[in-house]
Structures are given as structure tokens and as C-alpha cells.
Amino acid sequence: MPFIRAIIILAAFACSSASRGEEPPNVVFIAIDDLNDWVGCLGGHPQAQTPNIDALAARGVNFNNAHCQAPICNCSRVSMLLGKLPSTTGMYFLSPNFRNVDGTKHEVTLPQYFRNHGYYTSTCGKIFHGPADAASFDHVEPNRGWRRDNQKISYKLPKSNPLWDWGQVDVPDEEQRDFKTAEWASTELLKLTEKKQPFFLAVGFHLPHVPIYASKKWFDLYPQETLQLPATLATDLEDLSEYSQLLTLNPTGPRHSWMQENNQWKHAVQSYLAANSFVDSLVGKILESLNNTSAANNTIVVLWSDHGFHLGEKLRWAKRTLWEETTRVPLIIAGPGIHPSNCSRPVGLIDVFPTLIELCDLPAKSDLEGQSLQPLLQNPSRKWNRPALTTFGPNNHTLRTDHFRYIRYSDGSEELYDHQTDPNEWKNLATDPAHAALISELKKQLPPSNSAPLPGSKGSDSPLYGEADGVLLQDIMKK
Ligand SMILES: [Ca+2]
Ligand SMILES: [Ca+2]
Questions:
Q1: CA 395 to centroid of ligand 2, rounded, Å
Q2: Of 269, 271, 309, 436, which cross-links 36 as Cys (Cβ 3.0–4.6 Å)?
Q3: How remote is the CA of residue 306 from the centroid of ligand 1, in Å?
Q4: Alpha carbons 176 and 147: distance in angstroms, whole number
Q5: What are phi and psi of 188, to 5 degrees?
Q6: Distance from the alpha carbon of residue 391 to the mean position of ligand 2, in angstroms
Q7: CA–CA dist 183, 141 (Å, integer)
Q8: pTM
């Protein structure tokens, strides 16, 4: 089998190279877990310091209206890496692993597609939710380094997931897991450039996912005395359906009222910004290493996060909403032939798979549901009538256009926000007759059918279940 695979790879490689008459570009694929728009180049928090991500954005296309297709790790990553919508696969929650169910176990992932077409694929850190998919990579580097221990340093939240913690740690940066990942990737790049094959290097950072820890150096960037908190509106939830309010309550995270009463809001914001700056420095470490190789001018860099994160916006914490602070993600594509610019057209992570195929001149894959962003890479302000779709549980969808966000839940309740006048999504316009025609048009663009959750999904009985622990949110509300 290895021999046959080698023949296939050589044939694919030869064909691709012959048709192009040049070396195929390499891909460096950098994922950051739970990073929202609190990045300098996205402006989500006015004090965010991320000079390395900003520098990457300044030499590539910064998609500043990019959105995930699902608002939690597993289903977001599966959607992106399989190039299929949650409503198509039935993958809506934190489980199952897509390789463990009949409907998706034979799917070819993004890195696997590159592997099948002559690329050497190598990875470390969190790309897939859970262990790296063995079929996708020639090499999987194990995680190393400190991530957390059992000593919580902040507060014990009532009924919370043990991962929920934040604060400054004394662990040296060099001993932490994400640092080790970046260190490995920097060395791996040197090895990969010596290979005869093009490479696809996938690097996944675990921060700023909870527990949100960073060392003093990064906390010192954000003194609490001058730290700005996100804007909130005390009456914000009053124009939402009960379903919306229930769905968006994280079953394992803190309540906003608890964060305020325990004087932890500012501390958590500080921790999140500190972790972002730490990860940003590690992105810089990888890109500096890349720049020191002969592959620098022939490598496409893609940087993305699997979904955003609320830190009090709309009186919510973490993800699991269909609002801007959860759906919006960093997405930067830089590389040969890509001219620097900002693109504000709505796009999705699902579009990355067909984009990379086109940029690397691999054969088109006909079953992908995303759309190549190559036209926007060439002309970022061109017409683009495709809204970005995000789904949380069957039949709960949101569409983001240039100007609006429309949400429709499975109980029929709706929300509409005008981002030109209301970037915080405070005023629900869905019942305003002036927008009836717009809503009618947007409704037509929702998936016409929605697959049932895959067997083995925790939370499959109802999207109102928190899949992490099977607790019904209504019960949580009563506590
Ligand atoms: Ca995540
Ligand atoms: Ca409101």
C-alpha cells in the first residue's frame, strides 16, 4: 500500500506541477481556539495588542466579516475541515467524532485532500476537536508542555465545568503547551522545506480557550485600572424570545450576574486579552521561522479561529449563541499573489477548503458546500451576495450579510439587527414591518432541510440540552 500511495502521490504531483509549470505553494494553517474579534486588526476590543496577527493581516487579505458555521469547537471544525454545513452532516454538538458514524466516517478532510494530492501533511496542537485525525496527516506531533493543573486560581464557579478558570500563572512561557507547539512548528518548518514535496503544516493553539491562563508578562499589558469592559445593555434580553434566552445560556459557564457579583468580569477580560497577546507572540514565532526558510515566498498562510467568545456582551459568556460575538472569527489569508487588503464581505470558514484547493491548483472537489474566496482575494470589494450562515442545533440559524444579521430559531422566533446603526445587536428589529421584505428574502436562504443530530451526539434530543453534561437549560434557569 505505501508503494501504491507513493505512485499516486507522484502522479498527482507531476500532473499538478506540469500544468502549472511551477512549484505548488505550501500551506501553513494556524488555528486559534476560541479567539473572538479581540484582535488589533479586527477592532473588537480597543486595547487588544496583537502585533503579529496584525502584521500578517497587513500582508494578506483580512476577512473582517468572517463567521464560523457552528458556535462550538467540534462542529465548527468538522464543518470547516469537511467543507460541509452542520445541517447537512447532522454534526451540531461537541460529539461524536465524525470518524465514528456511518454518515461521515469516509469523508476526506481538508488536510487529507492535500495529502492525497501529493502534499506532506504535518500537525501539532488542536486542529480537530480531540485527537488529530490519523488519515489526515503524515505526521502527528504529540502535545507537550503545561496547560493546566488541578489547582484553580480564580473562583470555583457553582456547577461549572472544571475547565472554567482564568488568571495569571507563574509557569514560564517556555514550559507552556502552546509555546511548545510553536517551538515544534518553527523547527518542523525547517525540515519541511528540505523535502521534495510541498507541505501542509497545521498548527493549533489551545488558548484563549478556558482555562484562560497567561504569565505576568502578558497581564502587565492590560492593567485593570485602565481596562475597558465591553458595552452592555441591562434590558437587552427583553426583546428576545424565551427560546433565544435559553439556547444562549451556557450550561457549564458562569452567569454574567455571577461575574459581576464576584468582581470577576474585569479579571476575566484581562486574562482573555493577556492570553490573546501570548498566542499572538507565538504566531509571530512561527511566521518568523517561515520567513527564514526558502519556502517563505511560496507559502500560503491561513489564520483562523473556530468561533468567537462572549465576555459579557449581550449579558452572556463564552460561545453557544448565534450573535456576532460568537459567530465572528479572525480569518486571514496571505501568500504569493495575494495583495494586502481588508475584505468586509460576509464569508465563512467553510469557504477555506475550496479556496485553498483553488490557490494550490488541486482538482476541484465537487461535494463541498463552501465557495472559493479567490474572487475576493483578487478584488475584496467585488459584489458578493452570499451571506454567512451559522447553525446551532437543528433549525436554529443565523445569516450575516454586509449590513444585517438575521436569526431564526426552530420555534419560529426571529431576530434582526442592523449592523450599520447597532453593532452591539441590542435592538431586535424582527417585528418592524419596515423589514418584512428583507426578512422574507433572507428566510429563503436558510437550509431547506436540516439533518437530525448524528447518533452519539450528546444533546441530540434537543438543542436546548447542554451537550457537555446533558443538563437541560430550563433546569439550570430554575437554579
Ligand atoms: Ca473552540
Ligand atoms: Ca435587545
A1: 22
A2: 309
A3: 5
A4: 6
A5: -60, -35
A6: 20
A7: 12
A8: 0.93
For the CA of 314, the nearest ligand: 2
One digit per residue, pLDDT tens: the chain, 479 residues? 344 444 444 444 443 433 344 799 999 999 999 999 999 999 999 999 999 999 999 999 999 999 999 999 999 999 999 999 999 999 998 889 999 999 999 999 999 999 999 999 999 999 999 999 999 999 999 999 999 987 777 766 655 567 889 999 999 999 999 999 999 999 999 999 999 899 999 999 999 999 999 999 999 999 999 999 999 999 999 999 999 998 898 877 888 998 999 999 999 999 999 999 999 999 999 999 999 999 999 999 999 999 999 999 999 999 999 999 999 999 999 999 999 999 999 999 999 999 999 999 999 999 999 999 999 999 999 999 999 999 999 999 999 999 999 999 999 999 999 999 999 999 999 999 999 999 999 999 999 999 988 888 875 445 555 433 344 444 444 43
**Ligand in nearest proximity to the CA of 206:** 1
Residue 373 half-sphere exposure, CB side, CA atoms within 13 Å? 29
CA dist 471 to 72, 159, 461, 467, 476, Å?
A: 17, 11, 11, 8, 7
CATH of 24-393, one of 3.50.30.10, 3.40.50.300, 3.40.720.10, 3.30.160.60: 3.40.720.10
Q: Which ligand is nearest to the CA of 71?
A: 1
Peptide bond into 46 cis (omega under 30): no
* CA neighbor of 462 nearest in space, from 449, 444, 448, 475: 475
Q: How far is the CA of 92 from the centre of ligand 1 (A)?
A: 13
Question: What's the 310 CA to ligand 1 centre distance in angstroms?
Answer: 12
Q: Which residues contact 87 (CB under 8 A, 6 or more apart)?
A: 391, 394, 397, 447, 449, 450, 451
CA of 426 to the centre of ligand 2 (A): 4
Å from CA of 415 to ligand 2 middle: 9
User: What is the number of the ligand closest to the CA of 425?
Assistant: 2
Tell me the CA distances in angstroms from 85 to 5, 68, 328, one per residue in order.
Answer: 30, 10, 17
Ligand closest in space to the Cα of 313? 2
Q: Is 286 strand, coil or helix?
A: helix
Catalytic residue list contains 129: yes
DSSP assignment of 77-127 equals: HHHHHHT--HHHH---SS---GGGSTTTTTPPPHHHHHHHTT-EEEEEESS
232 C-alpha to ligand 2 centroid (Å): 10
Which residue shows C-alpha cell 453534561? 469
Catalytic residue, chosen from 73, 124, 343, 360, is 73
Dig out the grid coordinates for 399 from the structure: 445569516
